[in-house]
Specification:
- Strands 1-2 form a two-stranded antiparallel sheet. Strands 3-4 form a two-stranded antiparallel sheet.
- With 261 residues, it is mostly helical.
- Strand 3 and strand 4 form a beta hairpin.
- It has 2 domains: 86 residues, Arc Repressor Mutant, subunit A; 165 residues, Up-down Bundle (Four Helix Bundle (Hemerythrin (Met), subunit A)), CATH 1.20.120.
- It is built from 12 helices and 4 strands, in the order ααααββαββααααααα.
- Helix 7 packs antiparallel against helix 11.
- The relative contact order is 0.10.
- The two termini are 36 Å apart.
């Protein structure tokens, strides 16, 4: 049986939780520790009694959280043996991304790059499908958001919120549930780490008119133009994000090299 990786680090991850939604908070805490690698595959979780003391909750909340982990195939529970962590990578789900982008307060550049690449792939596709599937209400909302984005180009924080909402509506207008799920999964990372993502938003402020043009292309059913405009937007923001990745990776390498010296 494998030992828990970095036992001291792991023990520091157990934090008392708020009274409401106890089992959900215990579940989220344990899931984050498993997916981030703080608890390694093959490691045995502490018994229910010990977990309830660490989280300062009742055993029922812990039991329910463990059951959810088992349902999501993050752990396997054996009668009399407790819960053992599975190798979850074979059962990867998009909502795990939120636990992988930041580990112990540090950005995971490989995962961050993966999020950007996924974003670049689905954006033009969403716009294309929306051209033939969007309803009147969805088109009206896209046009409204397009106008608001243009008028908010001097308000980065508001622009950022509207930009995410625009992508949500565009995903809904594509009438593709997978796109909606992906946008929502990426969105939780996007909004929770808004300041970092503002580095990619800054160049978009100058290109705000493109959102209005995308809405018009969707209204007109112009698939080629909608996809082209969406691709342009992601190229603009992508360049800023990739510079962030390159700088971060370089600093990380310099820090490691300095540590060896």
């Amino acid at each position: 049986m494998s030992e828990i990786r970095g036992s001291e680090s792991m023990m520091g991850g157990f934090e008392p939780v708020k009274r409401e939604g106890l089992s959900d908070q215990v579940y989220q805490n344990l899931r984050r520790m498993i997916v981030s690698g703080r608890i390694a595959p093959g490691a045995k979780l502490p018994p229910e009694r010990e977990l309830s003391l660490k989280f300062q909750v009742n055993r029922g909340a812990v039991r329910e959280a463990l059951s959810r982990l088992s349902e999501n195939r993050l752990v396997r529970i054996k009668q009399g043996s407790g819960a053992v962590v599975n190798d979850w990578t074979g059962n990867f789900r998009l909502d795990f991304l939120t636990d992988l982008v930041f580990v112990d307060g540090k950005i995971n550049f490989k995962v961050f790059r993966s999020v950007l690449e996924l974003r670049e792939l689905i954006g033009p596709a969403m716009a294309g499908y929306a051209c033939s599937r969007a309803g009147k209400a969805e088109i009206a909302e896209l046009e409204k958001l397009g106008r608001e984005l243009v008028s908010s180009r001097n308000q980065p924080e508001r622009f950022q919120q509207l930009e995410y909402r625009f992508n949500q509506v565009l995903a809904r207008a594509s009438h593709n549930l997978a796109f909606e799920f992906m946008v929502n999964s990426i969105g939780s990372i996007y909004l929770e780490n808004a300041k970092i993502f503002q580095l990619g938003i800054a160049p978009l402020l100058k290109a705000a008119d493109k959102y209005r043009e995308i809405a018009q292309a969707v209204r007109d059913g112009n698939e080629k133009r909608a996809k082209m405009l969406m691709n342009d937007l992601f190229e603009i923001s992508g360049r800023a994000f990739y510079r962030l990745l390159e700088n971060g990776a370089r600093k990380q390498k310099e820090s490691k090299d300095g540590g060896r010296g």
